Amino acid sequence: xxxxxxxxxxxxxxxxxxxxxxxxxxxxxxxxxxxxxxxxxxxxxxxxxxxxxxxxxxxxxxxxxxxxxxxxxxxxxxxxxxxxxxxxxxxxxxxxx
Length: 97
What we know:
Layout: H1 2-24, H2 27-36, H3 45-63, H4 67-90, H5 93-96
């Protein structure tokens, strides 16, 4: 009984919290690049990959239905969308085409 609670409740909650931290960590870098109006050394490719990854995990979480998978990825999807769009707007015309 105790291991079912741990594996069925505690571990998914911890995974969701760690996922939220991971997805929201690049927000400050994207915000700083936006204020500077330059990407500088910031590589925007991981933001686009994260956007696609969270979109896929959200689709899987809805199809499964596994809300422990779906719910933490909603804010991750929004954060990845913000960072991707912000950095796309700052990329040079050669790089964004």
